[in-house]
Write a structure and sequence with these properties.
It is a single chain. The protein is of the alpha/beta class. It folds into two domains: about 190 residues, 3-Layer(aba) Sandwich (Rossmann fold), CATH 3.40.50.2000; about 160 residues, 3-Layer(aba) Sandwich (Rossmann fold). It contains 13 helices and 13 strands. Helix 5 packs across helix 6. The radius of gyration is 21 Å and the shape is elongated.
Length: about 375
């Protein structure tokens, strides 16, 4: 059966969104395994970029269709958009639609409902109540929502069940490709490397990472800190963080590596990953680091506690407690034996709980339940 998957990036005219993000990586992992379970995937995206380059490399058929959300204030334009979707869906004839983002259904749901095609909304990031109402108002509702963590479901389902009472909520944790992310030994480096791998969104709290670095350098000088990521929203965040590193007097020990595609190799060069986010919906890079045998220190918020087992695969610290992050990091890096034990536990946990094979089976089971209900 054919499954139509819709991704919201890259977007035409927004070069900063042409890079491959966590949601796109998760979708690519799913696409790589769907054919093994009898599904014929087809993808629609609004523009070209690293995501479509990856689709071409994988041989996944796709169409570039610069769709826009339907607007009741522009009835003629919306009617034209709906007609284009109707023609596209009639040509592709999918058994179901999987939208890789909450707001996407605002574009296609009217046409899908007309053709009686069920659709699933994958909720990877928080959405405000007003935005949820706008997306779902006066349009066919999804058959199911897939949340990438129990924390996301707890946060959003009380809102969504009032807007879409017949929809079914599911939780499916993100997965790591264990053929790409493999355990690496203690890095052979004169300095201990601590990293953060995240685009410069405010909720990632890079400032806490830099303040943690300042505290750690007061006690050890054999440290260096890597920031991997970019300012995908074009807000000037990178410049602000560079200035903060200068004010803290640590810029000589801090390296901004920008957006990178070689994340497995980057993680293999780190001794430790830090994720100080405030309400991280899941934290894909955490399971990638764990699969590489890297302990992770993360904030005790959002989906992170569903991944890190405190004291065994990493440490959990309260949001904003950069001194606590520094203490946990110094403790971990102070014992090579303790580091190895935690690294091994992290790799085992990633393999047993977050494998791509298990993730795809879960998603396909949801597909089956949606079609059975129909």
């Amino acid at each position: 059966m054919r499954c139509l998957l819709i991704n919201n990036s890259p977007q035409p005219g927004r070069k900063e969104l042409a890079k491959l993000g966590g949601g796109g990586k998760s979708l690519l992992g799913l696409l790589s395994r769907l054919p093994d379970l009898g599904w014929e995937p087809y993808v629609i995206v609004p523009g070209e970029g690293q995501f479509t380059d990856a689709l071409a490399d994988m041989g996944i058929p796709h169409t570039i269709f610069p769709f826009t959300p339907l607007s009741m204030g522009r009835p003629m334009k919306s009617a034209q958009e709906a007609l284009l979707w109707l023609r596209l869906l009639k040509r592709l004839r999918p058994a179901l639609i999987h939208a890789n983002g909450f707001e996407l259904s605002r574009s296609f749901s009217l046409s899908a409902g007309f053709l009686d095609i069920p659709y699933i909304t994958h909720v990877r990031f928080p959405v405000e109540a007003e935005g949820a109402r706008w997306t779902l108002s006066k349009l066919p509702k999804p058959s199911a929502f897939i949340f990438n963590s129990h924390a996301m479901k707890s946060k959003l389902w009380p809102i969504l069940r009032n807007l879409a009472p017949k929809s079914i909520p599911y939780v499916a944790h993100n997965a790591v490709d264990l053929s790409e992310f493999t355990p690496a030994p203690w890095p052979d480096s004169a300095k201990l490397r601590i990293g953060i791998v995240a685009n410069f969104a405010p909720f990632k709290r890079h400032e806490d990472f830099l303040r943690m670095a300042e505290e750690m350098l007061k006690q050890r000088k054999d440290l260096e800190f890597w920031l991997v990521g970019e300012d995908t929203q074009g807000s000037g965040r990178r410049g602000e963080l560079e200035k903060l590193a200068q004010r803290l007097g640590i810029s000589s020990r801090v390296t901004f590596l920008g957006h990178r595609l070689d994340i497995p190799q980057i993680l293999g060069q780190l001794h430790l990953l830090v994720v100080p986010s405030q309400f991280e919906p899941f934290g894909r890079v955490i399971i990638e680091a764990m699969a590489c045998g890297r302990p992770v220190i993360g904030s005790n918020d959002g989906g992170i506690p569903e991944i890190i087992e405190h004291g065994k695969t990493g440490y959990l610290v309260e949001v904003g407690d950069y001194q606590g992050f520094a203490n946990a990091a110094l403790k971990l890096l102070g014992s090579r034996q303790g580091w190895r034990a935690m690294a091994e536990s992290a790799a085992i946990s990633a393999r047993e709980k977050f494998s791509l094979t298990s993730h795809v089976k879960t998603i396909c089971a949801i597909y089956g339940e949606v079609l059975k209900k129909k």
